[in-house]
Amino acid sequence: MSNKKMITCFVEALGISEEDVVNTLEYNSIPQWDSVAHMQLIAALEEAFDIMLDTDDIIDMSSVAKARQILQKYDIGF
User: Fold this and answer.
1) Where are the domains of the chain?
2) What is the CATH number of domain 2-72?
3) N or C: which end of the chain has fewer CB within 10 A?
C-alpha cells in the first residue's frame, strides 16, 4: 500500500507514468523533475503519509530509491 501511495505521489507531482517511477529515477534526470516539481512531490508525500519531512531529507531526496529510504525513517514500510 505504501509503495503504491508513493508511486502515485511521483506520478501526480511529476506528471509521469507509473512505469517511469523506478529506483534509478533521479532528480534532474528528466525535465519533469525540476526544483518546482520537487517541492510539489515533497508536498504530495507529506500529505499522503501525514508527515513533515525535515529540510535535510527534502534536500537529500535525490532519487526514487532515496525517497523510499527517507520515508522509512518516518516509520513508513515498503
Assistant:
1) 2-72
2) 1.10.1200.10
3) N
- CA–CA separation, 1 and 64 (whole Å): 16
Is residue 46 very low, low, confident or very high in pLDDT (cuts 50, 70, 90)?
very high
SS3 call for 26: strand
Q: What is the DSSP letter of 23?
A: T
Place of cell 525540476: 34
Query: What grid cell was written down for 36?
Result: 518546482
4: which 3 cell numbers? 503504491
CA atoms within 13 A on the CB side of 37: 18
List residues bridging with 26 in a β-sheet. Answer: 63
1 falls in which pLDDT band (50, 70, 90)? confident
Q: Is the pLDDT of residue 9 over 90?
A: yes
